[in-house]
Amino acid sequence: MPCLYITTNVNLAGVDTAAIFAATTTAVSTIIGKPENFVMVLLKGSVAISFGGSGEPAAFAEVVSMGGINSAVKKKLIHSIGSILNEKLSVPPARFFLKVHDTTAGRPVSSKL
């Protein structure tokens, strides 16, 4: 189950968060290749964030997935989620940071006892 956790310093009062949830769920599902009904998205606003010493709109996000992550997927996630946050929350792509973690990385594909 992929999980996308987004934290931003933007106040979400009056923001159409349903549109953010829909767009990010579809993006994560499509890019990672997992069904939408397995994608979880958490969104937290009004968090004190300083990026480059500035309190202008910024966001930090983390994607955790069991498989489906490689360097091409990471690049697509950064671009897609960054574009969504720019469009929906006016967070410039240069003020967005994405951490990606594959929980299966480093594990053997199969093991036999």
Automatic annotation (TrEMBL):
InterPro entries: Macrophage_inhib_fac, Tautomerase/MIF_sf. GO terms for molecular function: phenylpyruvate tautomerase activity. One of its GO terms (cellular component) is extracellular space. It comes from the Eukaryota. SUPFAM superfamilies: Tautomerase/MIF. Belongs to the MIF family. This is Macrophage migration inhibitory factor homolog.
